[in-house]
């Protein structure tokens, strides 16, 4: 089960986030009068690429805000929407970096503009570059939108300053994590387990769990100890989530996870699972298969066997449990009210029981 | 002569901008403690790519601020530094879009990380993609930095809101202009002169002239009529500057301009000069040469002949004069104090007399 489904945020509150997002896109789109049809076109494309998500980060903001007794939903909704736009910006740019042209079965920003270019008769390599170019621009607009939403969230000066700092830290972390990930793929050496964990924490966990939870707490006017505990909860559960995700990327049932169990192995994705296996003698037998562009189902089965035999799978699953336990501990602190604990505990369980 | 050299901003004021920039980089770099060595590495690379510029946009901010009687230099310096970071963000991403790996004779962000990758034994195409990936991330950090600087500039709430709006409009305009430019190159049809002017206004003039001048005026507490007049001045002189730049890109003396007079023709850059020529029958003789990857000096000479014979060169030069005259008119308005006029008038002259 996905943690998304377990975080109970009342529909009314989440609807306010949708309204804020719609409002932002409407205003941005209407600015086409000043910035021309190209701007409006980009904004509508971004809108499509932002819709239909699970709103995980807004849910984190609102869960903290709601259970910590926050009063001004309007401010929380704007901050929640800002984290959704930040997410859009980061995945649009991440897709450029990964040269992905599809997300959730649909052409992403790069993909839709690539397709537009090939339809106009442009050769594929050039069309791909054009699509990626537009995606760079679109991501910039979404990133700017996140700052603009927090800037205009309506909180008092002190609160706004702290929210901007949380947003800014999340951007810096994501940038550092993305760069570390690019760096891993640039060298033939395998990163250590700790290096992989640090990369995943920076690249995803920070802006997805840690920062939105803390932002919701800040809007609610929570004390420093609570904000700190929620940060630790977010960091640890975020890392646990990522490790489980990586295990599922190799061992998950394709018809349950909805994604290929060969993709990660074929692209040579550096995960905790692989970083651990690579330190074991068993790995020598499959090292040449890992990251090979023509890796097939049979090769994948060989690697999986080694991942099990070398103890890497067990190691990764235990590591995920360890981080989930640290998340529990953060939740158990006195500074965290029972209602917050009750709301977030299922997230821990769902991460550990996750099979898709 | 470059307009940069004619805008007289006292050294002390410009030094404050350098201090703010240095401070921003120092703080960002020190955050490596939280975000790891990858973050610090990126920041130092961005610092190198921001240093040594002519600080044209900060000069615009400070000129408006200073001549309009602005009092709080600290605020103006932060806003000025924000526009410099925005410039860095936009050129770093523009270089990704143009697949440029060199700027001002030095490897740019993409170039330095590409070189690092090839040194590590990565094949060139992959290394180029890695370099561009890091540049996408670095540009995001610089863009976030621009927002952060304006957010924390210390102005009162109302002023800060207006400054963020100016920054935001500049980002939207630059994105729209960049996209229009990408779009031009995606189709075989030639844009009209008006379309090229609109693209250049959005892509460069807005964030380089219009927005910084208005931001300086806002910090100085100028009235709406003055801000409006400076906006019109900036827009028109910015367009004039760009048209002259495009003419020099084809007719300039390489040893004076410091850049190849063949590059623009070879890459098929859509400029006012070309958009006008393409509507004339004389163009048919050279149409096949324009944008050809193996265009040589002789081909370039043929195109130049046609640009002169068809009247395109004269047309472009007159158009630049027209826009410069509109800039004069904006400066001549009653709402613009004599000191501001005296400081900005040389910019108009320098654009018109520009030979490099």
Question: What percentage of the residues of chain A does DSSP assign to strands (E)?
Answer: under 5%
Q: What class do helices, strands and sheet pairing of chain A give?
A: mainly alpha
The quaternary organization reads as: homodimer
Largest sheet of chain A: 2 strands, antiparallel
The CATH class of the largest domain in chain A turns out to be Mainly Alpha
GO molecular function, one term (chains A, B): metal ion binding
Family (chains A, B): Belongs to the FPP/GGPP synthase family.
Keywords (chains A, B): Magnesium, Metal-binding, Transferase
Protein name (chains A, B): Geranylgeranyl diphosphate synthase type II
What's the arrangement of secondary structure elements?
The structure is a homodimer of 356-residue chains.
Chain A (H helix, E strand, L loop, with lengths): L2 H4 L4 H20 L1 H19 L5 H12 L5 H25 L4 E2 L2 E2 L1 H11 L4 H28 L5 H30 L6 H27 L4 H28 L2 H4 L5 H4 L5 H6 L19 H13 L2 H20 L6 H16 L3
Antiparallel strand pairs in A: 1-2
Helix pairs in contact in A: 2-3, 2-5, 3-7, 4-5, 4-9, 4-16, 5-7, 5-8, 5-9, 6-7, 7-8, 8-9, 9-10, 10-15, 10-16, 15-16
Q: Can you walk through the features of this model?
A:
Chains A, B: Its cofactor is Mg(2+). Chain A has 356 residues and is mostly helical. The first copy, chain A, has 16 helices and 2 strands. Chain A folds into 2 domains: 222 residues, Orthogonal Bundle (Farnesyl Diphosphate Synthase), CATH 1.10.600.10; 128 residues, Farnesyl Diphosphate Synthase. Helices cover 75% and strands 1% of the residues of chain A. Chain A has a two-stranded antiparallel sheet with strand order 1-2. In chain A, helix 4 packs antiparallel against helix 5, helix 10 runs antiparallel to helix 15 and helix 15 runs antiparallel to helix 16. The termini of chain A are close together. Chains A and B meet through helix 3, helix 5, helix 7 and helix 8 of A and helix 3, helix 5, helix 7 and helix 8 of B.
């Amino acid at each position: 089960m996905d943690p998304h489904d377990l975080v109970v945020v009342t529909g009314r509150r989440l609807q306010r986030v949708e309204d804020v997002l719609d409002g932002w896109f409407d205003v941005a789109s209407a600015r086409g009068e000043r910035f021309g049809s190209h701007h409006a076109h980009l904004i509508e494309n971004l809108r499509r690429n932002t819709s239909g998500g699970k709103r995980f980060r807004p849910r984190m903001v609102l869960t903290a805000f709601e259970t910590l007794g926050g009063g001004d939903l309007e401010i929380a909704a704007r901050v929640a929407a800002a984290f959704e736009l930040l997410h859009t910006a980061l995945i649009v740019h991440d897709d450029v970096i990964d040269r992905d042209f599809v997300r959730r079965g649909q052409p992403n920003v790069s993909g839709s503009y690539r397709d537009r270019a090939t339809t106009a008769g442009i050769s594929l390599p050039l069309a791909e570059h054009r699509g990626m170019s537009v995606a760079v621009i679109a991501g910039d607009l979404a990133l700017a939108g996140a700052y603009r939403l927090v800037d205009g969230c309506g909180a008092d000066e002190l609160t706004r300053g702290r929210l901007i700092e949380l947003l800014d830290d999340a951007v810096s972390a994501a940038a550092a994590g993305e760069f570390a990930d690019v760096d891993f793929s640039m060298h033939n050496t395998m990163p250590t387990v700790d290096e992989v964990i640090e990369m995943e924490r920076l690249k995803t966990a920070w802006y997805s769990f840690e920062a939105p939870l803390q932002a919701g707490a800040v809007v609610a006017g929570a004390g420093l100890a609570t904000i700190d505990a929620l940060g630790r909860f977010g960091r640890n559960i975020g890392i646990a989530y990522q490790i489980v995700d990586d295990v599922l990327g190799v061992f998950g049932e394709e018809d349950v996870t909805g994604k290929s169990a060969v993709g990660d192995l074929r692209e040579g994705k550096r995960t905790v699972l692989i970083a651990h296996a690579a330190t074991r003698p068993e790995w020598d037998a499959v090292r040449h298969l890992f990251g090979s562009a023509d890796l097939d189902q049979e090769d994948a089965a060989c690697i999986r066997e080694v991942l099990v035999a070398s103890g890497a799978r067990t190691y990764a699953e235990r590591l995920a449990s360890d981080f989930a336990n640290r998340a529990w501990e953060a939740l158990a602190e006195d500074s965290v009210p029972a209602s917050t604990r009750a709301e977030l505990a299922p997230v821990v369980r769902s991460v550990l029981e996750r099979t898709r």
